[in-house]
Amino acid sequence: MSRVRHIQIASEYEGQRLDNFLLRELKGLPRTRLYRLLRQGQVRVNGGRVRPEYRLRRGDRLRLPPMRLRERELGGAPSARILQRIEQAVLYENEQLLILDKPSGLAVHGGSGLAYGVIEAIRARRPGTLSLDLAHRLDRDTSGCLIITKRRETLQQIHALMRSNQVEKRYLALLKGKLESAMRVEAPLERRPGQGLLQPMRVSSGGRRALTVFRPIGRYCGWTLVNVVLHTGRMHQIRVHAAYSGHPVVGDERYGDPQANHTLRRFGLRRLFLHASRVAFALPGQDKLVVHAALGEELATVLQCLRENAAAEGDTR
Questions:
Q1: Does the residue 69 lie in any domain?
Q2: Is the pLDDT confidence value at 8 over 90?
Q3: Helix H segments across the chain?
Q4: What pTM did the predictor assign?
Q5: Which of 217, 230, 233 is nearest to 175 (CA)?
Q6: Annotation marks residue 139 as catalytic
Q7: Among the three residues 164, 184, 207, which one is the final residue of a domain in this structure?
Q8: Which one of 60, 101, 133, 139 is the catalytic residue?
Q9: Residue 125's CATH number
Q10: Residues 143 and 257 occupy one common structural domain
């Protein structure tokens, strides 16, 4: 059991959310326990209660209560196989950041019953790098480009670029139905109260602005492969907008069409067909960085089966 701790916030952590800072500082503490401590007021900033989303300021003084931290509280550290898989997924790396091709089925961080995610695996592989942080998130079942920063300053720069829509994020998705032309979906999104993980997001006039553009690049007998450009970054945005348009992403167990998902299983689809294929941005004073993640073997095989089926049925458009 640890003692009461007091931490003074250095300038490099200014602007970081309190919960994200504590998840790094209190390795081994489940997210559920952390948020309970915050709700109970056992974690204090400058002597007062604060919410998890509080943004730290230089000089803030944190009070942490006594607690027991167990490295395997949620079921263990990443296995050697997972660590190797993550290391092999790195697409680009320099002294400021790394970009990897996140595997489908692996969450970006631990919590909610998950022992670990990508960020914990990366930290385990690079124990000497102190400020490894997620610059953004991908859904657990989505694969592709994920940015992880190595410096607090770089994280702040990328977040500033995202707020000004200067980080280009493109995805590949397979949709139900035939799209003849580009489809622009601008529909506000909000959380659905009380839905938990079932369908946590919905289109609502009271939600936050969200804009997604879908451009067809391949058609296969009632299925359309699209290039997706995100102009905002809401939770589950592509999946909710696709379903709202009447063309859900195939393999989507939350917002998708169960019959379409069942049909695609005979072509080998066992996951969400959504892949972050490209990310591009320019950090201050640097050239533009463009990183691509090729479509994985599983999804590429599904497309090949659909092509062959379309050719056999005479639909080659």
A1: no
A2: no
A3: 18-25, 31-39, 80-88, 118-125, 152-163, 237-244, 258-265, 297-312
A4: 0.78
A5: 217
A6: yes
A7: 164
A8: 139
A9: 3.30.2350.10
A10: no
